[in-house]
Design goal:
This protein has 214 residues and is mostly helical. Strands 1-2 form a two-stranded antiparallel ribbon. Strands 3-4 form a two-stranded parallel ribbon. The chain is globular. The longest helix has 22 residues. The chain starts with 6 loop residues before the first helix and ends in a 25-residue tail after the last helix. Keywords: Membrane, Transferase, Transmembrane, Transmembrane helix. It comes from Peribacillus loiseleuriae. GO terms for molecular function: phosphotransferase activity, for other substituted phosphate groups.
Amino acid sequence: MNNSKGGIYREFIKRPMDFILSLLAIIVLSPVFLVVAILVRTKLGSPVLFKQKRPGMNEKIFMMYKFRTMTDERDENGELLPDSVRLTKFGKLLRSTSLDELPELFNILKGDMSIIGPRPLLVQYLRLYNNHQKRRHEVRPGLSGLAQISGRNAISWEDKFNLDVQYVDSVSFIGDWKIILLTIKKVFVREGINSETAATIEPFKGAKKERIEL
């Protein structure tokens, strides 16, 4: 993987900026953390945090933290009910306001993630990417990214990955701050939270096979 793209900003400024911004955000938003944690515990039960392994830069696996938004309701066989059933009204509110993402600030502080970058997806998707889509792991995954301000869960997987790779090829200080400001706007407008056919987003089932010209 080529880690030279992005110049001085990518190599020497982006990570220190992530550390400072995430630390300041954790301090300033600490009352919000406390209130959300209490509400999650009251309305959804324990544990308050949802933890899941995700692939980061260079496909290194890390543990990502979020506030939980779903119940643990199961059917008679002990299997979890569909997302649409377990995602409560309160959970939908957390997702639409992106408050469920706040614990990821600690992932940024640790260096697992960045403020801006491709969103960290499921580990099982790694084997499904084509070579182009794998390039999304050339940078740290982000709290928000180009795909999130361009439609979030309302755009196709293919479009999402193309935007991720576009970001990898154009990392810049100005670009990151544009995404940060547009992310704040999107949070207030609450656009693209769900796909058109699912409560969250449909699972990724693999890259489309490249057409072979005969």
